[in-house]
Design a protein that fits this description.
This protein is mainly alpha-helical. 72% of the residues lie in helices and 1% in strands.
Length: 339
């Protein structure tokens, strides 16, 4: 098992190295150049689409633009926005946040194109329902000869989802917040009971299909974002005199890597810092990973570009907004905890 773990770890380190920069950042920059910044010129129009200005009940699909966006965000907002930012700053210093911003901006373009494709080349599942996502637009757009690639993506997506990180986090939170403070012993059986309860509650939503998932996400995600926003704002107001300083450090220290403690990349610590920010940015917003097009592919629209424009808000909300709030709050929260 040790040998298998080492092989998997080495493979993961390789994939999240130069291939990540070439595929996610290089591919995103290529799309940014050939589109001539087109997606960013229509953010106002994207907001109108998101608010339902162009909705048509006769269009194909099952959920609204807003529900598609919140469903996609429900899979990204979480560990990467809090623990991921803390890890990035702990290893790379404030400058890591700047490269997370860069990753998010490029990721907005990536999501625009991938989610546009998820509408442009939708397929049908075994029940005959219209569905979108990489596994569908690979076959519908490139042809059936590319079906092995679509199957490979599906298998990778399944394996990637197996660890069920969110359930692990919630189980640990229940143990630390409810059980341990009340002197209730944490055992295998208690974890098993919590696990079954979480599976039961989650299945009520999941077995309802994309409609029930989207309705639940459209109510929970805005609540999560607003609650987190107001909690962080309290910290930032208390330490408001420090906010400009930390914002400045995020930019100035992005190019010197004085605080970087990780491995070098392409022969230098600056390269390591850039790779760290890109990794954490991609882990946070999942731009280019392929999960968001599955949600946006179910949107009720016949206009692919409209859904692509709506999908662009994902990395902006996730990384540019929430991750920045976390990065600003970490120093202030540390001081509050030490008092």
């Amino acid at each position: 098992m040790t040998s298998i773990n080492n092989i998997i770890a080495d493979f993961a380190s390789f994939i999240w190295g130069l291939p990540l920069v070439i595929l996610l950042i290089g591919g995103g920059l290529y799309l940014l150049v050939i589109s001539r910044l087109m997606p960013f010129r229509y953010l106002g129009h994207a907001l109108k689409v998101l608010m339902g200005a162009y909705d048509n009940k006769l269009d194909k699909g099952e959920i609204t633009h807003f529900q598609a966006l919140t469903t996609a965000l429900s899979s990204t907002i979480g560990m990467g926005n809090i623990a991921g930012v803390a890890v990035a700053i702990g290893i790379g210093g404030p400058g890591a946040m700047f490269w997370m911003w860069v990753s998010a901006i490029i990721g907005m373009v990536t999501k625009f194109f991938t989610c546009s494709l998820s509408i442009m080349f939708r397929g049908k599942d075994s029940a005959g329902n219209v569905q979108g996502g990489p596994m569908y637009f690979i076959v519908e757009g490139l042809g059936k000869s590319w079906k092995p690639l679509a199957s490979f993506f599906s298998v990778c997506g399944l394996v990637g989802a197996l660890p069920v990180f969110n359930v692990n986090q919630l189980k640990q939170a229940i143990n630390d917040v409810l059980l341990i403070p009340n002197n209730i012993e944490v055992t295998f059986m208690s974890n098993l009971i919590i696990g079954f309860l979480l599976v039961f509650v989650t299945s009520i939503v999941i077995f309802g299909g994309i409609k029930r998932i989207s309705i639940t996400a459209s109510k929970l995600v805005p609540t999560m974002v607003l609650l987190y926003f107001f909690m962080v704002i309290i910290i930032l107001v208390i330490y408001r005199d420090q906010v400009p300083k930390y914002l400045s450090l995020m930019v100035t220290e992005a190019f010197n890597a004085y605080h970087y403690k990780g491995d070098t990349f392409l022969g230098g610590v600056l390269g390591g810092l850039i790779l760290l920010g890109i990794r954490r940015g991609a882990f946070s917003n999942e731009a280019g990973i392929g999960t968001a097009p599955m949600a946006h592919g179910a949107a009720k629209t016949n206009e692919p570009i409209r859904e692509g424009l709506v999908a662009m808000f994902g990395p902006a909300i996730d990384t540019l907004f929430i991750c920045t709030l976390t990065a600003l709050a970490i120093p202030g929260y540390r001081r509050m905890a030490n008092k």
